[in-house]
Design brief:
Elements (H helix, E strand, L loop, with lengths): L14 H22 L8 H11 L11 H24 L2 H7 L3 H26 L5 H11 L4 H29 L7 H12 L1 H28 L1
Helix pairs in contact: 1-2, 1-3, 2-7, 2-8, 3-6, 3-7, 5-6, 5-7
């Protein structure tokens, strides 16, 4: 099922509303906008993917989606969006970010630049997929900072595929194993968003430990010299 019947009003911030209105096509469109266009930073990428996976389970209630169609739509939307975002950045991403009045967007840009500086191009591009807002601004920022096009393309494909397929299959697996799981959709979405932030949190903790070890070693050498 590609698209469901269109209700009179669609809440773009609500994953269930988007999926009910547009089905798998809505997944592709939202992920393209969230990862490729700076105006899409507020869209619910994580919850949309997880909810789409749940709705692929037969008898889950409400609209029923096709798992293969959702997976294809999710991957295509996320990968195409990131690539478009990168080329937008090449042609003036810094200027667009500087003109933005959104505090969240500016904060996201700062975090994205920190990721690029701290972890390098490959790891930052992959990690950014799992962080709301950051995954929106890192792509044009990578273009603006002239991250090599080949490097960006390879790692955004890896990160985008893992992010989209992982969340859709997580929703599908949970919906298949727990009866009437759609009744607990809101708390489940909250949990999946928190879990999606774990890779970044682990990297931050690892970075802090390395800096502490380096500081301790430097202090020890200074003491020996004295």
């Amino acid at each position: 099922m590609i698209a469901a019947s269109h209700p009179l009003a669609v809440n773009v911030l609500d994953a269930s509303s988007l999926l009910t209105a547009f089905g798998a096509l809505g997944v592709a469109a939202v992920l393209f906008a969230e990862t490729g266009l700076l105006i899409g930073f507020f869209l619910p990428g994580d919850s949309l993917l997880f909810t789409a996976g749940l709705l692929c389970v037969p008898g889950s209630g409400g609209v029923h989606l096709s798992l293969p169609q959702v997976l294809i739509a999710a991957v295509v939307g996320a990968l195409a969006g990131a690539q478009v975002g990168y080329w937008i950045g090449r042609r003036g991403g810094r200027t667009l970010l500087a003109r933005s009045r959104s505090v969240r967007l500016r904060e996201g840009a700062q975090r994205a630049e920190e990721l690029l500086n701290r972890y390098g191009h490959a790891k930052a591009v992959v990690l950014a997929r799992f962080v709301p807002v950051v995954r929106t601004v890192l792509n044009p920022l990578a273009g603006a900072l002239e991250v090599p096009a080949r490097t960006f393309a390879v790692w955004q494909v890896i990160g985008g595929t893992v992010w989209t397929v992982g969340l859709v299959l997580a929703g599908y697996a949970l919906g298949s194993s727990v009866p009437n799981v759609d009744r607990y959709l809101l708390p489940l979405v909250a949990v999946i968003v928190i879990v999606s932030l774990l890779p970044l949190a682990l990297e931050i903790l690892r970075g802090r430990r390395k800096r502490r070890s380096a500081t301790t070693a430097q202090a020890s050498r200074t003491g020996e010299n004295l």
